[in-house]
Design goal:
By secondary structure, the protein is an all-alpha fold. The chain has 10 helices and no strands. It has helices spanning about 1-15, 20-35, 40-60, 65-125, 130-155, 160-170, 175-185, 190-195, 200-215, 220-230.
Length: about 230
Amino acid sequence: MALALQGAAVAVMVGLLCNGFEGMLLVFIAAQLRRLAPLRTGAAWLAAQTLTVAAALAVHWSPRAAVMLMAPYAGFQLFAFFAARLHAQLAEQSRTAERLRIARELHDALGHHLTAMSLNLEVAAHQTSGAAHDNVRAAQSLARLLLGDVRELAYAMKQGQATDLVEGLARLTDRERDVLRLMAGGYSNREIADVLATAEGTVKNQVSSILAKLGVRDRTRAVLKAIEAGVI
């Protein structure tokens, strides 16, 4: 309703005065349309608005002047309409990207801590008995449920990252997988070298390759990601 009144006011202004400011007002109306109307409706509105202003120009000046001014008026309106729509789309993409970043950070932080908690509870379960053992197992079940909830909530927004992790794990060689399993057991590079009967420098290079393929900065995150993916 407000836009219709604004368009009618522009037409009246053109019919009575036509001092050039009507073009700027038409642009303002076109920019507002992107929030209130879909593409086809907005385009039809602009066409009707342009024809209405052209009729007022024909009355105020002449039909020839109206025909000459219709093209620039329509062009300015279309530019404002699509520019406003593009700006809105870019703003929405920016908000979506920010939500995705927050979801990834929350998933990484909570997922890693819950996985570490589950592992610690598993160790505690083997060191307790009786009622204490039952309580530890109950806490471990809750930790796993929470981890599952975090995964489900973040899954839709982390598909790209999950795909990268799967691809990174698939690129690991058999020896790198062996190194990763020993890393999960808390072995140092020297201890891994002794177990695999290889040089410590070779193990160091393999660890660096594992971190690069999984896209993580340290051994702990590499192990946690591998555990979350069910590789180890």
